[in-house]
Amino acid sequence: MRFSFFLFYFFVPLLAIAQKQVSGQCFSEQYKKISFPSITLLSDSSNQIRKFVIGDIDGKFTLKISDQQKEIRIKISAVGYADSFLEFSFDDNSEIKRNIILKSATRLLNEVVVHAEKAIVDKGDTISIKSKFFSDGSETVLEDLLKKMPGLDIASDGVIRVNGKEIEKIMVEGDDFFDKGYKLLSKNMPPGVVDKVEIIQRYEAQRLRKGLKESDKIALNLRLTDDAKHKWFGNVDVNASPVNPEYYAGRVNLMNFKKKSKYYILGASNSVGQNIDISLVDQMGGVSEDIDNENERNNFLYPTVSFMPQSNGLPTKKYSFNRMLLNSANIILRPFANTKLRIGINRLSDKIETNQALQESVLLKDTAFINNESYLIHRMPVTYLGKLNWQTEIDSSTSFSADIYWLGILNKENAITYFNTKPLLEQNRVNHHHLSYKATLTKRISETKFLQISFAEAKQDLPIQYTNQPFLPTSFFNLPATVNSLQRVQQYRNDINSNLSYVHKLSNSAIVETYVGFNAQITKQFVDLSFNNKDSIYNSGNDFNGNYSLNQQKIFAKINLNKKWKSLSVIPSFEITFIKQVNTGYSTNTWTNSFVNPSLTVGYQLNKKHKFIGIFGVSNNVPNFDDIQPFYRMSGFRSFQRGSNTVQSILQSTNMLSYTLGNWADRFFINVFYLGIIDHNFLGTNMIIDPTIIFSEKIWLENKQAQSLNANADLFVKQINNNLKLTTVLSNSTFYNVVNGSSIRKIETTSLSVGLEAKSVFKGFYNHHFGLKRVISRNETEQRRNFIFHTSFLDFYFKLNKWGNLKIRNEGFHFPKEQVSKAFLVFSDIEWSRTMIEGKCSVGLSVTNLMNQTEFTTVSLSDISVTKNTTTLLPRILLLKMEYRF
Amino acid sequence: MKKYLFCLSCLACFYLNAQTLSAGYTINYKVSLRFGAIRNFVGVLNTSTDRADFRFKELIDMPSSVSKEKNVINFDLKDTTENIIQTNLRTGELLEITRLPPEKNYYLVQDSIVKIEWKILEETKIVNSHTLSKAIGEFRGRQYTAWFAQDIPCVFGPWKFHGLPGVVFEISDAKREVEFLLTKISSIPNFQFTNPPKGLLISRLDFKKKQSSLADDISKALLSKLGREFTVEVKVKNVKQIELD
Question: Rounded to two decimals, what is the model's pTM?
Answer without folding.
Answer: 0.69
